[in-house]
Amino acid sequence: MIDLKSMVLPEMEEYFRSLDLPRFRSKQVFSWLHEKRAASFDEMTNLPLSLRQQLAEQCTLTTLVIERKLVSQLDGTIKYLYRLPDGNHIESVLMRYEHGNSLCISSQVGCKMGCAFCASTKAGFVRNLTPSEILEQVYMAGRDTGEKISNIVMMGIGEPLDNYENVLRFLELVSDPNGLNLSHRHISLSTCGVVDKIYDLADRDLQITLSISLHATTDSTRGEIMPINRRWGIKELLDACRYYTDKTHRRISYEYALIAGVNDSRKQAEELAALLKGMLCHINLIPVNYVREAGYEKSGKGQIYAFQKALNDRGMNATVRRTLGADINAACGQLRREAEEPGRE
Ligand code: SAH
Questions:
Q1: Which atom of ligand 1 is nearest the CA belonging to 211?
Q2: Where are the beta strands (DSSP E) in the chain?
Q3: Which candidate in 118, 192, 281, 332 is catalytic?
Q4: pTM of whole model > 0.90?
């Protein structure tokens, strides 16, 4: 089956040409898929019936099914467990902020990266998401809530730069003026540090915000908790980040999950400030979420604020991330695992 919803307009035109269909039909179908968000070919009433039938036979519409939906009583955060057409599961989380709704989306089913503290990687990697499956998470959340999604963060399940081509296609589709038309400035992409792709992304000069999951200040600690660091060390990663900022003039956001006794000492705060000194950056401190197999505990409140203060005292812009959806376990990766292995906690 042809995945129509993953095609950018020129590709759809090419496909329609191969079917000997007039070019204007591709624009009509693109608009049905991405602007009017039709759930079936039957809805595409300005197409001749025969064409609707032909498309229904040859193409899929890539729809997701909401298998579970948890709504936080505390702050209205919504966590979706979606079932994909092949029966696999992914998660998205809708967070409500004063400046609008922000949706955290997945890029893969599972993850290969093996970060020691992360739930998404524990059950291994299954497959990449297609561009339409990434996009449909956004369309579904919009349809379900009837609300506008104003920001997207690619911080759900998976490593976006390990599914690079499909993620680039998604970025193109989501910002298409004939679709959601969401500016790249409202999209953040988080990576554990796939250095070659950071250079490539820099050369494309997209206006997205890059987030780097740093989490440690020395190669020995980072290599222990993040296997990617054994391929590209901290220096190589930060060189790539400097190149990214030079090219795009965009401020990079560094994620630092505070784990008690692992990376939260005063000395490590000083090392972090020294590493990022002079860079156009923001540091996001996140008390680590407890994942059973990982066994890491979050740092205490006092330790977290002392870490932040040590950074601020050295002129670094660092904030502690507010916890949203605490009552629905909104951190990613956990619902999918329950769905794949019923009976788990
Ligand atoms: N693969 C990408 C995006 C997905 S993870 C990346 O690594 O950046 C999104 C963010 O959540 C990353 O910063 C990741 O390191 C962090 N994260 C993963 N598990 C976590 C946990 N148990 N507690 C706090 N943050 C976690």
A1: 8
A2: 2-3, 59-60, 65-71, 78-83, 89-97, 100-104, 108-110, 125-128, 149-154, 187-191, 209-213, 252-258, 281-287, 318-320
A3: 332
A4: yes
Q: How many residues does the chain have?
A: 345
Residue located via tokens 């968000």: 37
Q: What is the DSSP string of 242-292?
A: HHHHHHH-PPEEEEEEEBTTTT-SHHHHHHHHHHHTTSSEEEEEEEPPP-T
Q: Which of the four pLDDT bands, split at 50, 70 and 90, describes residue 344?
A: very low
Encode pLDDT of 146-195 as tens digits. 999 999 999 999 999 999 999 999 999 999 999 999 999 999 999 999 99
* Protein residue whose Cα sits closest to atom 13 of ligand 1: 213
CA distance linking residue 177 with residue 50, whole number of Å = 28
Residue 156 to residue 110: CA distance in whole angstroms: 10
Q: Which residue has the tokens 């909104």?
A: 330
Report whether residue 191 contacts ligand 1, using a CB cutoff of 6 Å.
Answer: yes
Q: Minimal CA–CA distance to 105: which of 71, 82, 76?
A: 82
- 332 a catalytic residue: yes
- Report the SS3 class of residue 29: helix
Of the candidates 78, 74, 70, 145, the residue with the CA atom closest to the CA atom of residue 105: 78
Could you tell me if the CB of 257 is within 6 A of ligand 1?
Answer: yes
